[in-house]
Amino acid sequence: MQSADTWDQVDRYITERLIPQDPVLEQALASNRQAKLPSYDVTPAQGKLLQLLVQMHGSRRILEIGTLGGYSTIWMARALPRDGQLVTLELDPVHARVAKANLSLAGLEERVELRVGNALDQLAEMEREGVEPFDFIFIDADKPNNPGYLQWALRFSRPGTVIFGDNVIRDGEILQEDSTDLRVQGVRTFYDLLAAEPRITASAIQTVGSKGYDGFVLGIVTS
Length: 223
Prior knowledge:
Elements: H1 4-18, H2 23-34, H3 44-57, E1 61-65, H4 71-77, E2 85-90, H5 93-105, E3 112-116, H6 119-129, E4 136-139, H7 146-155, E5 162-166, H8 182-196, E6 200-209, E7 212-221
Parallel strand pairs: 1-2, 1-4, 2-3, 4-5
Antiparallel strand pairs: 5-7, 6-7
Helix pairs in contact: 2-5, 3-4, 7-8
């Protein structure tokens, strides 16, 4: 069995071979560290995967639930066409200020709308505003609320919308039915909803790397 050190080395190998150095993205990560944001950012390889998925899908409108410092936001927004839009939701005003500065550095202010406040409240407000459906939805916020985020994602979807959920393996703890960890229970309910929902077809992939043992869910809305 390979060690976590090997996973980390392989992640660096992939990044060095396939992902060119990018001063803007590197500065975004540095700014996040300087502001003492949690180290929850996707890896460069995961960011590039998100970007490729957006490009492959031809997405024009993206919803991101959970901005943090905007690192994943930059990856996805760069894949949008010139007239595309990304709406990203962040609870913490400090995180949002860092993200806004990072997005400005990347020259993406006009393409990205950053909304600050409780994501469930923001989603309800967006519905009242009559916001149009999205083509790609990335769920990467507090895991206890994952079931609610999925329900809202479906309301903001149309046939063909891609829904991508991160951190859905949690070191294998999703197998623990009696877990007292609300994050684990939130992810388990997320799976239950996906399994019972006829409007979406989905699968999940386990991953290892510099962020440890985790994984993601990828689904497509069918009706």
